[in-house]
Recover the amino acids of this structure.
């Protein structure tokens, strides 16, 4: 999530990944602001996306289904084949927080990324706003303060 600037509610599909242009297309229905936008693929993320897309292709999974989905690998038949929910992501982070004895969430990563972007020498508030998909610059400012 940190490498993609996405919140947990954003559901990428295989067709949203453009490895030719190294971008991710964020659909309006997956976006909190209901706006479509494009974010760059971080170089360290690219090999993992390539591998995941190859696995999806090998398994015959349609390109229009949720790309990051733990239910695809679940042994429990209750959720198998269904889209992953935001509650499942929250549950994962709650368990991880317990194991690490430190509270954090998927959304916390977006704050971390925003802060790190603004600490770089080439910092640009407008670029950070666009990467995070915020309509209002005040929201971006609240992330980095």
């Amino acid at each position: 999530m940190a490498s993609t600037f996405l919140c947990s509610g954003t559901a990428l599909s295989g067709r949203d990944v453009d490895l030719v242009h190294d971008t991710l297309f964020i659909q309006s229905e997956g976006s909190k602001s209901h706006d479509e936008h494009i974010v760059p693929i971080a170089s360290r993320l690219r090999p993992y996306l390539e591998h995941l897309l190859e696995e999806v292709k090998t398994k015959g999974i349609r390109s229009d289904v949720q790309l990051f989905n733990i239910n695809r690998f679940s042994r429990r038949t209750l959720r198998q084949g269904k889209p992953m929910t935001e509650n499942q992501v929250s549950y994962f982070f709650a368990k991880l927080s317990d194991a690490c004895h430190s509270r954090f969430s998927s959304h916390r990563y977006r704050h971390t990324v925003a802060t790190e972007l603004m600490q770089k020498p080439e910092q640009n508030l407008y670029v950070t706003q666009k990467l995070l998909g915020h309509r209002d610059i005040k929201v971006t400012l609240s992330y980095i303060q």
User: Anything to note?
Assistant: The radius of gyration is 16 Å. The helical segments are 46-58, 86-100, 106-119, 125-132, 137-144. The chain has one domain: 14-144. The first helix runs from residue 46 to 58.
